[in-house]
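Project outcomes to date are best conveyed with an example. Our students and postdoctoral researchers have been running inverse folding experiments weekly, and each run begins with a structure described purely in tokens. The record below, which covers 226 residues, was selected by the lab manager from last quarter's runs and is presented without edits.
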């Protein structure tokens, strides 16, 4: 599958001829200063939860591209009030068939609030199944035994996990998460953006390799295949 990494937890996957964008936080990320959000293609925008560092650029990209924004009911309601025209709600446990394949919402162990501090529903992850392959984006989460259910729903080609620690899983927990979901390929996200989630990338890659797992830490703006 073709993936482009836009920094922090933002990445896109091309499936079924559609560009599926996840958690766009670019204009507020100094590390992604060379990325122009006006050039990012999107047919769908999946939002894992309400924190600013996962949804700051949703409205701008959705309004420019006409992309369908997908998220929990509270985010569906919020973005509707922000003027986004194309929306689809999906709550944990729910599965929706789209033209690129299917998306299932799963719980993430994390807090969630809107920019003004109000309730944003629960945090989520997504299991995506498409003709090109299957993957799991956990969203911001701690390690949870709920992840052991993922292989019941999909044979994964790769998973996307936060590895920055402090606010989410760290490297050790992400390795265990990969074992829970039965994948040997991981895209690491949610690291280095802020001072309290900086990591030693070489050591992270080494730890994953020792566990028999391939960790991808692409440069911001890089497009690659898994």
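After processing, the design step wrote out the following sequence:
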């Amino acid at each position: 599958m073709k993936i482009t990494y836009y920094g922090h937890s933002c990445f896109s996957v091309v499936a079924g001829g559609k560009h599926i964008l996840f958690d766009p936080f670019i204009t507020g990320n100094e590390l992604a200063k060379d990325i122009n959000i006006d050039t990012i293609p999107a047919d769908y925008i999946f939002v894992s939860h309400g924190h600013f560092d996962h949804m700051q650029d949703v409205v701008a990209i959705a309004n420019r591209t006409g992309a369908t924004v997908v998220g929990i009911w509270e985010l569906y309601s919020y973005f509707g009030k922000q003027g986004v025209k194309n929306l689809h709600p999906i709550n944990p446990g729910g599965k929706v068939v789209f033209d690129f394949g299917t998306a299932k919402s799963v719980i993430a162990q994390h807090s969630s609030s809107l920019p003004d501090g109000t309730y944003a529903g629960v945090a989520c992850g997504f299991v995506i199944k498409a003709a090109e392959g299957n993957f799991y984006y956990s969203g911001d989460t701690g390690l949870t035994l709920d992840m052991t259910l993922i292989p019941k729903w999909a044979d994964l080609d790769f998973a996307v996990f936060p590895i920055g620690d402090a606010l989410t899983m760290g490297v050790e927990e992400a390795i265990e998460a990969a074992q829970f979901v039965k994948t040997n390929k991981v895209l690491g996200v949610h690291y280095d953006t802020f001072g309290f989630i900086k990591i030693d990338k070489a050591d992270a890659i080494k730890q994953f390799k020792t566990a028999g797992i391939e960790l991808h830490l692409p440069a911001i703006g890089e497009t690659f295949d898994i």
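The mean pLDDT is 98. The domain at 2-225 is CATH 3.60.15.10 (Metallo-beta-lactamase; Chain A). The training component of this project remains on track.
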